[in-house]
Design the sequence.
């Protein structure tokens, strides 16, 4: 098997183009047109796109059938959002009657894909009850194709989607197998949702946004939850707004720790794509799990 490609195997300008494509600033045709200049002998622009796109099998760390886990697909009510929303719940199989710390897992802008399900399973192996809602539920759910998922996401009612995540937090915390403590971890779009939950849920116990859009600095004073903010170094779209929000958090006395990982690209924690940085991701994830365990421990 050939070695997995990394960000160092691609021109930085191409990676910036790919980021614009992933986030809807370029459509497929525009990306391929602009990426053509990076094509080399035997590799067309379509090949570059394929090489940069997710390989879910390569990134799977925990199989869905792992006997150490109990996983199920469930739905929950969201009366102020989409009505009913589907999601993926993962718990330790040996939990018994033990009440578990709960973690809401919030996906990128493609819905509940196999990578996010794997993230939920990883958290369950660390002793959490992890729940990953699918914001694409009202549009039929994650379609099994990243391009179709991105297209569907562009049509999503974002106000309803935010209410769906708020409803998920309420539902998850109130479960009888929860210890009453709730954290949230999210990636890219999901990182932005974690920031939004932190200003809307005064009883959130912990938030871990990975390279997510920040709210307006004027909202920072509403944050009551401790935050662990994970950022990439090469991520101008996200990083441009961070200094002002960081200052506002400090002025508001919010408890937070922020890390920026040298040399990393946006999406560095996602081990299904070449933007994955193994060393940075492992460090960021170990910090995430330790933070959640500390903040969500039972009384």
Sequence:
């Amino acid at each position: 098997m050939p070695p997995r490609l990394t960000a160092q195997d691609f021109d930085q300008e191409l990676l910036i183009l790919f980021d614009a494509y992933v986030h809807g600033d370029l459509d497929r045709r525009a990306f391929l047109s602009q990426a053509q200049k990076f094509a080399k002998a035997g590799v067309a622009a379509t090949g570059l796109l394929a090489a940069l796109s997710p390989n879910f099998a390569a990134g799977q760390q925990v199989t869905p059938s792992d006997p150490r886990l109990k996983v199920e697909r469930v739905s929950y009510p969201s009366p102020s959002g989409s009505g009913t929303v589907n999601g993926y719940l993962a718990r330790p199989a040996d939990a018994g009657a033990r009440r578990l710390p709960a973690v809401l897992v919030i996906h990128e802008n493609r819905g509940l894909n196999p990578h996010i399900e794997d993230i939920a399973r990883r958290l369950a192996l660390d002793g959490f009850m992890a729940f990953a809602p699918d914001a694409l539920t009202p549009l039929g759910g994650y379609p099994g194709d990243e391009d179709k998922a991105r297209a569907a996401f562009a049509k999503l009612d974002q106000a309803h989607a935010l209410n769906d995540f708020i409803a998920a937090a309420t539902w998850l915390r109130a479960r009888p197998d929860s210890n009453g403590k709730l954290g949230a971890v999210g990636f890219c779009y999901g990182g932005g949702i974690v920031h939004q939950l932190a200003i809307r849920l005064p009883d959130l116990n912990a938030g871990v946004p990975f390279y997510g859009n920040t709210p307006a600095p004027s909202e920072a004073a509403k944050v009551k939850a401790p935050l662990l903010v994970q950022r990439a170094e090469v991520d101008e779209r996200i990083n441009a707004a961070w200094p002002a929000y960081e200052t506002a958090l400090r002025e508001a006395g919010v408890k937070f720790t922020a890390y920026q990982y040298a040399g990393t690209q946006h999406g560095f924690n996602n081990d299904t794509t070449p933007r994955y940085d193994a060393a940075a991701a492992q460090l960021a994830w170990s910090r995430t799990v330790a933070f959640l365990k500390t903040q969500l421990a039972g009384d």
About this structure: The chain has a mean pLDDT of 95. The chain is about 35% helix and 20% strand. The beta strands are 69-78, 83-92, 100-106, 129-133, 178-187, 206-210, 227-234, 256-265.
